[in-house]
Sequence to fold (185 residues):
Amino acid sequence: MALAEQYGRYGYRKISALLKAAGWLVNNKRVERIWRREGLKVPVKQPKRGRIWDNDGSCYRLRPECRNHVWSYDFVEARTHDGRKFRMLNVVDEFTHECLAIRVARRLKAIDVIDVLSDLFILREVPGHIRSDNGPEFIAKSVQAWITGVGAKTAYITPGSPWENGYVESFNARLRDELLNGEIF
Fold:
């Protein structure tokens, strides 16, 4: 019950994994029975989503093939307790689902995007492609010229289609649920 209260977004499977990691000898089915008996929310099974590619290998959009092949980046906006907004630039490796960087500031401009990417390119290798939406910070000529200058390619999503940038949007949703909505800044 304490874990369910602490991690409100987790279901019984994740809670049973946390209990096992803490040294408890538990079964997933027993945790589920207790979960239901206590009236906790049992997450509804998610329907299978449509593929972004056909079974014959043809691709609707670029999909990652290895580590550092495709990176995605996007902004998340939130507010502090006094109502002032701040932005977070998140960079995610689509193949490993690893968050590579989070830059937080009141304002983030195109030069800040270049700064974050240059730090990442030094720490890791230059990715093959960088996927983003069509925000002004991402389509700025300075950003496009810098990315092509270092040898990477830009992959912009279709305007109004955030599902094409699903990896970073999923990360942003979890970041908002698990951190931003649960804390006061």
